[in-house]
Amino acid sequence: MTERELDAAGITDPVLREAYDHCRRLNARHGRTYFLATRLLPVERRPAVHALYGFARWADDIVDALGTGADTARRDAELAALERELANGLRDGESAEPVVRALADTARRYGIDHAHFADFMTAMRSDLVVTDYADYAALRRYMHGSAAVIGLQMLPVLGTVTDRGTAAPHAAALGVAFQLTNFLRDVGEDLDRGRVYLPADLLAAHGVDRERLRWSRDTGRRDPRITSALRAFERLTRGVYRQAAPGLAMLEPVSRPCIRTAFVLYGGILDAVAEDGYAVLHRRSVVPRRRRAVVAADGLARVAAARLRARSAAARGTERAPLTAPEPRMVEEVA
């Protein structure tokens, strides 16, 4: 299926094709929810999404996978090397690193602002030294680079029916909403890495601090104060989803099913956390496969409807011919 995507995107250079395929494999392995949603995009747009998320995944892996404590210097050196490679790749369009090569090509094809990548790298470097956040304002400053810019990078690929500036705040909010969802789901895992992304003032308002979280993680015991804090963080996150929601209708019709599916699936993680009793310090909450399949089927139906409308409009001479549809096998693979 990679060959079909690359052919549709007009990517013919063998080295560049392998670079994009490398990014796709990264996403398939690490980003199950968004990889599923990406399958709903027209095939010619998928390689760009894989490049953007592949790069983000690679940088995030540098921050997390090399350990903590004594390894900070090594991770800092790895990120510095990546920043240099990124700068050279964006300038020259070439790189020995497959992920950077694909990213640079995507940035050129879609005219993505290079400042978004610089802001992202700044956020990644802060993860080496910042282990908690005093309040939500501080967390939002971090998430500008770690999440909001991801939405902004995606916007040129997805396309809009409004001017891009109008859609941009909603795209940024959606990136933040997705990351907040991950923060809630991964409280225990992040704590093991030495990080607490839940704002300290929110925790304190419910009588919770890092030590209390550590106690619960280590002992497996529950505390109603922690549950109350986690519930408050869930409410905060749902508020950001509401800020993002108007942006769905601002996207090109062929892109809406993909982003709506991601919107619903990530929101489903919040539902799973709540249904699991906010036990995120002890286990990861997941959206049941049956639910994922239902959402995927709905996304496919929306794609089919969008294609039908596009064909009708094209027949009237008011719109270009529709783009290629996703594969019907998608729901079978999820179920």
TrEMBL record:
Keywords: Transferase. Transmembrane segments: none annotated. It comes from the Bacteria. Pfam families: SQS_PSY. Residues 316-335 are annotated as: Disordered. Pathway: Carotenoid biosynthesis; phytoene biosynthesis. InterPro entries: Isoprenoid_synthase_dom_sf, Squ/phyt_synthse, Squalene/phytoene_synthase_CS, Trans_IPPS_bact-type, Trans_IPPS_HH. This is Phytoene/squalene synthase family protein.
